[in-house]
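Retro notes, item 3 of 5
We never archived the inputs for the zinc ion complex last cycle. Fixing that now. Sequence and ligand:
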Amino acid sequence: MYTAKINNFLKKKKYPLYFFILAIFFSVYAFTVNRINSYNISIKNNFDFFLRSNEFKNIKEFVFENLNSPYKEYSYIVENNDTIEKILKKHNVTTDDINNIASAVVRKKLTNIFAGTEVKFVIKEESGNKKIVNLFYPINAITSVEIKRNKNNFIISENTLKLEKKEIISSNTIKNNLYSSAVEAGIEPNIIVEFANIFGFEVDFQRDIRVGDKFEVHYERFVDENGIVKNTGKIIYASMFVNNRELSLYNFKFKNKEGYYDVDGKSVIKTLMKTPINGARLSSSFGMRKHPILGFNKLHQGTDFAAPRGTPIMASGSGVITRAQKYKGYGNYVSIRHNSTYVTAYGHMSKFGRGIRKGVRVTQGQTIGYVGSTGMSTGPHLHYEVISNGKRINSQRLKLPTGKVLNNEARNRFEIERIKIDVKIASLRKNK
Ligand SMILES: [Zn+2]
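Structure as it came back at the time:
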């Protein structure tokens, strides 16, 4: 009866009606797609585009997901205090699998996971039991762990990315501060920190930088096969245009000593003065001594210079004042941070130099205070300390990795290296 009706309908050749129904069907379909994706897709005009688009892919996935496949793929972003065990528990994986996997990763020391990274896994649901088929997570920037089910066991393997070293150049004009302008240029934070460190003796990033100053940095990046940056290497060249002068620094290694040098082969690391005071005599050196006031043996963690009260004390190197105040037994005390490694400190001053206070930048040789006998002191003298990475060291034995200016063979090698770097950065700038 029904078939007869259709035959009848076709015999009447009401094809226009047929197409009309089809058109309605497509309209409804389009409407549904819109609802699913919240995108406005016009099937009429963009059908080809639609077939190739992500929207179609989403629908495909949507359809496959609803095929009731026993396999489900998960992508989980690690939260603070997560462990592989906790993540699997959250997804109701069978206890057997959790225990097997957890003990295996502990045994192989592959338990490190980090908040914000992605853990991917496939679970197969079998008569109500959720079993792990495979599991994949990164343990550092270049290594990931892959766990695959093999019957009732798991095969665990570590995959290390093959990274390619790329030398890149990046530059920008400073609009607000170095950090934000460097981030804007796509420079990785650890490179920015290293950059600031290299220029630490030369530039005060809080005070010297003006809007419109420029910087350029040439450094190594390590990328995976998808071109994604996985790590950074060293800075090969760095340049700043600040205070109306340009300072370019080149990485150079000679006889296992690596450092940064300007175009004239001068090291960026400036020596600290051994004796930041004129007309003084060394009265007590660094080391064990009987303390003149306390009376017992104590490590003297500085060098004392006896000098008449009021003798000017100099900053032994350029840097920023981190303290200018009365401080413990030191009396009137000044400390200066020179770079990320070195701090110098000066004690027992009678008074501070003009304008010397916390946060002020001083240059080598500038008067920061005057000899006195404040604090725990038996007579006018300067107590001078050099602190390297937080540890007091003997200033008189201090060997800063200076070499000050490269000469002879080192200089010749440096010139060749510098020209190579210049050629390289010129071509990188062109191809940017
Ligand atoms: Zn002392």
